[in-house]
Amino acid sequence: MSKKHVNAIVVGAGAGGGIVAKELAVAGLSVVLFERGDWVNYDQHDDDELISQRTTVLGNAFGPDDERHRRVVVYNDGKPRIVLPSEGGYGNNAACVGSGTVSYGAMAWRFMEKDFKMKSAYGNIEGSTMEDWPIDYFDLEPFYEKAEWEIGVAGDHYANPFMAPRKKSYPMPAFAYNREAKMLDKAARNLGLHPFSIPMLRNSVRYNGRPACYRMRSCVGFACPVNAKCGTHNTVIPTAIKSGNCELRTNCQVAEIILDNKGKANGVKYFDENDQGQIQTADIVVVAAAAVETARLLLNSKNKLFPNGAGNNNDWVGRNLQGHAYTGALGLFKDEIFDDVGPGACWAISDYNHDNEGIIGGGALCNSFTTMPYLFTKTRPPGAKRWGLEHKEFQRNKFKRIVKIHGPFQEIPNFDSRVTIDPNVKDHWGIPTVRLSGERHSYDRIGCQFLSDRAEEILKEAGAYHTWQNVGGRGLSGGQHQAGTARMGNDPKTSVTNKFGQVHDIDNLLVADGSLCVTNGGFNPALTIMALGYYVGDYIVKNWNGSKFR
């Protein structure tokens, strides 16, 4: 069944899609915003660790569910295996209005100037597809600012000496340190480093009609009980709906972009909340389903002009899949450090993001979010017991004495880390599902080791009597902070979209999420994805003549 024609379809109500929908709706375009999940809130799962978005023993709190969603992962031995969302990782973002912005840790980083020009900064890397972005930091700077003020960020813009230039301060003051951060701050300064309070997409004071964060421990992986965490679900999406120009359709699975023989996108085929097949036509289609699902949708959308998927005539859709390999170290202290001032993470350094001798890129280091009891069972020194009396005593006596410093190393993109369509496996609706394959670039392990060494140095300086490392950088990418699968570029032979997010050869089909990222920075990318949403939305509005692009 076909629905009333609209100006724009936006697929995915997350960090990028929610913003694009708002920008178009308030500019007067008629918009349908599709979300495969539902509206969710804290009361549905409160702070039950076993069904959070981080600990999925009983499933994902905010989707996707095991019954309808599946993926295929190809391991190093070349054997594919079906994986379910509750197994964690594998690029499964929350499936709900707001997506990951409902349950994320809410770190609000701008990428640095060099993050947009990695090839210029570091040269050719063997085995890598690393390139400069076709835009630079200053192209995105006003949209970072808009995200910080419309969504809401708390921070101190003077504190980080490595921060890229900015024209306006944060709208809210930074969060105060907890006891752990105060200890790490002193140790870092003793080592000549430059610590600061992490910028956060959380209200440190009352802002935009919502209360201040009261700093509970169960934040990352959970919805906020007082609505102080800032996401698209409680900011721009309500604004879009209030405009009267945006219809949000929840529990709708988009299966295919409809392409015509003139190289245009005419709409989408989707399954509604009753699993009934539907068609929605539009003048433009914007895909913002996150890097794995965006690639899947493009690859599943074919016609005579695009037999291998929309925008995929040069075989770049789904390539360069990146995430972040988290890496760091842990330390045991004689005295209790934990003071239950959540969410835990509030201290960071950016000294090691770039300009490290012999290292390509780098990453930020932060103290960790509060580790809940179940996950704490995995916080063990090498060789420690994971069961029995010794395990219980460690759980009881060390919980308040362990400190973790870690961060995301900027992965080196490569052609064979990718998303494809599995030839045999389909989901609940009969849509061919994704197959994830490839490995991180071999250099990632070197960079992760470097960051872990630096984290351990700080812990020792802070007085830890026993330290050990947790070094990332191996295996499949695309777990946390997925990016890169529809990257922007000036050359259609080596990219999927142009610098405005328009898919090459399909000018009314755009992408507006982390898929666009050529490289993924050494930070959590949420604020950059939001900035890209504003950037793509601005381009559409400025070049719209009522029915098509000028």
Key terms:
550 residues, alpha/beta, single chain, six-stranded antiparallel sheet, FAD/NAD(P)-binding domain, 12 helices
User: Which CATH architecture would you pick?
Assistant: 3-Layer(bba) Sandwich
Q: Please, what is the average pLDDT?
A: 94
- Corresponding CATH superfamily: FAD/NAD(P)-binding domain
Q: What can be said about the biggest beta sheet?
A: 8 strands, mixed
Q: What is the level 1 CATH name?
A: Alpha Beta
Amino- and carboxy-terminal Cα gap = 31 Å
Tell the overall outline: globular
Category by helix and strand content: alpha/beta
Q: Topology as H/E string? A: EHEHEEHHHHEHEEEEHEEEHHEEEHEEEH
Q: Please report which band the strand proportion falls in: under 5%, 5-15%, 15-25%, 25-35%, 35-45% or over 45%.
A: 15-25%
Helix content: 10-25%
List segments where confidence is low: pLDDT < 50 over at least 5 consecutive residues.
none
User: How many beta-strand segments?
Assistant: 18
How many separate structural domains? 1
Radius of gyration, taken over Cα atoms and rounded to an integer in Å: 22 Å
CATH topology: FAD/NAD(P)-binding domain
Number of helices: 12
Summarize the structure in words.
This protein has a single domain (6-369, 401-542), classed as FAD/NAD(P)-binding domain, CATH 3.50.50. It is an alpha/beta fold and 550 residues long. The strands form 3 sheets. Strands 1, 2, 6, 7, 8, 9, 17 and 18 form an 8-stranded mixed beta sheet that branches. Strand 1 (6-11), helix 1 (17-26) and strand 2 (31-34) form a beta-alpha-beta unit. 22% of the residues lie in helices and 18% in strands. It starts with 5 loop residues before the first strand and ends in an 8-residue tail after the last helix. The model has no long low-confidence stretch (mean pLDDT 94). The longest helix has 20 residues, at 443-462. It has helices at residues 17-26, 42-45, 100-103, 118-122, 137-152, 179-190, 236-242, 291-299, 373-376, 388-398, 443-462, 526-542; strands at residues 6-11, 31-34, 71-74, 80-83, 196-197, 246-249, 253-259, 265-271, 277-287, 324-332, 347-349, 365-367, 402-410, 418-426, 432-437, 466-470, 502-503, 506-511.
